[in-house]
Amino acid sequence: MFILKEAEPIGKYAVQYLIKQGGFTSTYRVEADGVPYFVKLFDPALVPPKLMREEGVAEIVLGRKIRHENVVSYVEDGVLERDGVKYPYLVTEFFRGRLLSEYLREGAKFTVDTARQIIAGVLQGLRYIHSLDLKHNDITPRNIILDEVEKGKFIPRIIDLGHMSEYVGGAPPFPVGDLTLTYCAPEQLAGEFGAKGDVFAAGAVLYTLLAGKAPWAVDLDESEPYSERKQKVRAARKAPLDVEALPSDEPLRNLLSRALALDQEERLTLEDFIKGLSGKAAFTPAPQGASSEEKTPQGRGKEETAVSVQLQKPQGGGFADVAGMETLKEDLTRRVIWILKDKEKAEKYRLSPPNGMILYGPPGCGKTFFAQKFGEEAGFNFSMVNGSDLGSIYIHGTQGKIAELFKQARANAPSILCFDEFDAFVPARGSAGADHKADEVNEFLSQLNNCSKDGVFVIGTTNRLDMIDPAVLRKGRMDLHVEIPAPDQPTRKKIFEIHLKGRPLSADIDTEELSAKTDHYASSDIAFIVNEAAMMAALADEDIAQKHLLQAVRSNRSSLEPVQSSRPKIGF
Question: Residue 433: which pLDDT band, with cuts at 50, 70 and 90?
């Protein structure tokens, strides 16, 4: 791959110097109008096929979503043409600082408070990434930059999105040979990359800051085969975690023990990690033992079927909290909710209640929120089910959990089960990477058959209706297919009003103008814009004004904007 020289142009940017070079990328500091940025240039002939999508390089496609203080944020992307070859590139915001790995190599010592502050920022960045239904998958000291704003005070930023994915199962959609295995969770070593893997990695980084060494530290030669390095890491983890290397702070030791639990079931969630780090929750240490990937049904003694999902009546305003979509709300109230509520009248007219409902549409437009508000409006026992709730280390274990979940729902009828990202639960059988899910899909088909007769109504949310098994979508299972589109202008106006409510506002706020300038913006985009405007106002110690909101709109394009767009690209 050729290397750009100093002052060489790439789009509107001028190269200042090369930062680093990888197998198929080179990263530069560049400038445009005196403002510094980072540019990552990709060699299309060398990019692994796993990292390519129809829309382009996966890192660029996914990176377009990222805008957060603690994560390297997207500015724009483009193509550099040289000698007939088109090299895609990604421009991200520039920030000063040094890699955390550099501090560690130099033997830097971090106090408990400083280490907590650094990891708190990393966790906030991960929370944002996870809110976009993405996983980073490669949190290590070499992928965290520290910007020292004052002595001992850092703003940490997560960088290198090369392993980021929406991964939910099957083979990872990226090469794994370059991962730093010391910071990989046991399930990642077995090829499973999910949210709790990011939690483990963040815990491993915190351990390193406090102990001066990685947990279960082992010398690895990067030139060794990947399989051999994995075996060394697995062997090292057969010993208990060395908590004595940590400061003599029992709550902190317990927190790290749970963050670094080898068994996913014992490991903290991201939200629990945040609460524990801030002192808002305390935990017992994780039991020592085999990791999830090593456990077998014989090791446990019986097949696991218990589920942690709780069915309870949700509290909230129901459809009154949903901006716009009046026709849809009326239609669902008429066609679904009253039939579920008035069983006598339904029986009198021999009306069959609908069995289930698919909420589909682009990401960030409020499908999950709408499902929750539907549950509040109906007033039945309700549960939001995520993929991790039904995961199991056992063969057929997930099938057992599915059956147990529906059994609980029937016992607590009338009830509503909402499956978030339903396509991950019931992928089309025969599709790539879905073979291992066939038995689970069959179990869902069995449980869905006329479950409404038992007082169970099922909701599934998805961005990819085309990926759901067709047998799930037929009548008698998921009867209703409801699109949740990008909000129209009146709805956007109400969304602005909802998110501005309760904040200090200037008298010049004009939500009509704001809604007109945010055509094709998702609900989540508007929430982000309002929060960013509030941040600007807070830093200036003034009320939120129209200028702040308009600046936030100009700085943040729609996450639903087509990839090939004629609209000008606006920097972060």
Answer: low
